[in-house]
Amino acid sequence: MEKQKLPNSTLILVFGIISIVTCCCYGVLGLIFGIIAMVMAKKATALYMENPEQYDGFKNVKTGKILAIIGIVLNVLYLGYTIFLFATLGMDGIQEMQKGIMEQYGM
Fold first, then answer.
1. What is d(CA 45, CA 64) in angstroms, rounded to the nearest whole number?
2. Of 25, 33, 66, 91, which is most buried by a Cβ count within 10 Å?
């Protein structure tokens, strides 16, 4: 019997990568992709554990899950940093800080 590709194994890997790449989008977008990847990885792992000799592509699921965990951690840290900035500086303070950085680099 030929092995079937594990459903969504490539998509889990892609969502794990996207969760890391988009961590600078205020921590929200990457967090969503990371959580979706984790849920899909849990379902794929349960399906694989029921009948491991029937499915192929579990390495993509494991790698995607690891990337999703890293992405979630990065996004939570960045979201916390963003909330901290808004709580301490406010929107006006953040804009002043950005102006200072732009002037410092001659932009």
1. 12
2. 33
Tokens 């019997």: give the residue.
Answer: 1
Residue 17 has pLDDT above 90, yes or no: yes
CA dist list (Å): 5 to 10, 12, 14: 10, 13, 16
What is the reported pTM? 0.85
Residue in 42, 32, 12, 24 with CA at minimum distance from that of residue 72: 32
Q: What is the amino acid identity at position 94?
A: I
Residues 6 or more apart from 3 whose CB is under 8 A from it?
53, 54, 55, 56
Q: pLDDT for 47-96, tens place per residue?
A: 999 998 999 989 999 999 999 999 999 999 999 999 999 999 898 988 89
The distance in angstroms from the start CA to the end CA of the chain is 63
